[in-house]
Amino acid sequence: MSMNQNLSKIIEIVRNHNRWRRFECVNLIASENTMSPLAEAAYFTDMMHRYAEGKPRKRYYQGNKFTDEIELLVMDLISRLLEVEFVEPRPISGTIANATVFRNLASPGDKALIAPVQAGAHVSHTKFGTLGALGIQQIELPYDVERWNIDVDRAVKLIEEVRPKFVTLGASVYMFPHPTKEIADAAHAVGAKVVHDVAHVLGLITGKVWPNPIHEGADVATSSTHKTFPGPQGGIIFTNDKAIYKAVSKTVFPWFVSNHHLHRLPALAVTAVEMLKFGEEYARQVVRNAQAFAEALSQEGFKIPTENLGYTKSHAFVVDVRPQGGGAKAAKLLEDANIILNKNLLPWDPPEAVKDPSGLRIGTQEMTRFGMKEDDFRELAKLIREVLIDGKDPGEVRKKVVEFRRNFIEVKYGYDVPEDLMKSAIKVPMIL
Ligand SMILES: Cc1ncc(COP(=O)(O)O)c(C=O)c1O
Fold it and tell me: Fewest beta carbons less than 10 Å away: which of 31, 65, 174, 290?
C-alpha cells in the first residue's frame, strides 16, 4: 500500500465510523455520551500538544499560564456543581482516578471490600484489574439479588470481621443507590475509608436526581467525566477530606499520569457550565426515559428483572435475554440492526459466563441528549421486539432504525458554537 492509499484508507475508516455511530445508529451503551458542539470545539485546541506536569501555578513545564487558568476554573465549576470542597481533575480516566485513590488508601497486601462483579463492580475495582495490579486483596460484599443492592446487614458484619483498609461502592450497572451511609458508619467504626465510584451516575448527581455520596458519608468519590455526565473522556476525584485531597493531588502525578491531556479541560469546563444550566432538566428526562423504556420493553414481552422494584432509578437497566438466546446473540443481532448496546453479566451468572452472559445492559443518557422522550423510547422498544422476539431480518429493521435516528441528530441540553466564533475558528471539519 502506498502512503496515499494509507491516507485514503484512514479517511474512509473515520468517515464510516462517524456516519455510522453519529447519524445512523441508536446508541444505548450505558457508559457513553456525546459532547455539545461548543464542548467539541473547545476540545480541539493547541492544549492537546502541551505538557503541564504538576499542579496549576506549580508546574514543572513553562508555557502554562492559560492551562493553569482553565484547570483552576474546572476545579471551581465542578466543586460548585457537586457542592464539595476539593476536586482533582488530572486523572485521565475513571480507572486512573481509582488507581490513585486505592493506592493512597492501601498498600500491597492490604484488604479492600468491593461489590460483586456480577452485581456490576467495574473491572478496575477487582483482582482482575487495577486493584489486583496494585496487589490489594479483593473481598466481595454480600449482595441481595432480590433487592439488586448490597445486603447491608451482612455487609456490616463482614466489615467488622475483615477490618479492610477501604470499601468501594458504586458500579457499572447501578439501578438503585448503594447504601453509602450505612456502609460508611460501619467502615468508619473500624478505621476503614469509603470510596464511592460514581462514574456511571455523575450526571445524575449533578442533575440532583441521585444522592451525592460525599454528602452521605463517603470519604472520597471517583468518576469518569463522559458517561451520564456528557463531557470529554477523562476522570476526576472529589472529596471534602483535605488530607485525602492532598494525598491524591501529590501522587496522581507522578504515580499515574505525567501529561494529563490538557485539551480535556476546556471541554470539561464547557460541559460543567452546561450542566449548571441544563443539568437538572437533562437528568430528570434521562431517568424518566429509562423507566418508560424498561416498562415498554416489558410490555413487548421482555424480562426486566427489576420490574417489581420500579425498574430503575438511574439511566440504566438490564434485560434478561436468556429466552432470546442469551446476551451475546441478542447484542449482535441488535448491532446488525444499528441498535448498539452491550451484553452483561447478571447476578446469577458465574464469572466465566462473561463472553455469553444472561443479560443486556441499556442506558438512555446519550439518546436523551439527542432529544428522545418517553414515546420515542416506546417506539424503539417495538423495533427491538421485531429483531429479538419476532425474528425479523436485522437488515430490514436497520432501515427503520436509520429513519428513526434522523429525528435525533442535534445535541440538546448544551450550547452550539456561536456565529462569531465560527468565523474566527480554524476550520476543523468532522469527516463525514
Ligand atoms: C463504575 C466504573 N468505574 C470506572 C470506570 C472506568 O472508567 P474509564 O473508562 O474512564 O477508565 C467505569 C467504566 O465504564 C465504570 O463503569
Answer: 65
Average pLDDT over residues 166-178: 96
- Give me the architecture of the 40-271 domain, per CATH: 3-Layer(aba) Sandwich (3.40)
Is the minimum distance from the CB of 122 to ligand 1 under 6 angstroms? yes
Among candidate residues 111, 114, 272, 131, the one with its CA nearest the CA of residue 207: 272
- 107 CA to centre of own chain: 27
First to last CA, the chain: 24
Query: Rounded mean pLDDT of 228-237?
Result: 98
Q: 63-100 pLDDT, tens per residue? A: 999 999 999 999 999 999 999 999 999 999 999 999 99
Kindly give the distance from the C-alpha atom of residue 234 to the centroid of ligand 1, in angstroms, as a whole number: 10
| Averaged pLDDT, 420-425 | 80
| Ligand 1 pocket, residue 126 CB under 6 Å | no
Residue 184 has pLDDT above 90, yes or no: yes
Q: Per-domain residue ranges for the chain?
A: 40-271, 279-405
Query: 305 in ligand 1 pocket by Cβ < 6 Å?
Result: no
Q: How far is the CA of 419 from the centre of ligand 1 (A)?
A: 36
Which atom of ligand 1 is least distant from the CA of 225? 10
For the CA of 234, the nearest atom of ligand 1: 10
pLDDT tens readout for residues 354-393: 999 999 999 999 999 999 999 999 999 999 999 999 999 9
Contact 342 CB / ligand 1 (< 6 Å): no
Could you give the CA distance from residue 292 to residue 403 in angstroms, rounded to a whole number?
A: 22
Residue closest by Cα to atom 7 of ligand 1:
94
Residues 221 and 387: their CA atoms lie apart, in Å, by 40
d(CA 71, CA 262): 8
Ligand 1 contact via 225 beta carbon (within 6 Å): no
Stated pTM of the model = 0.97
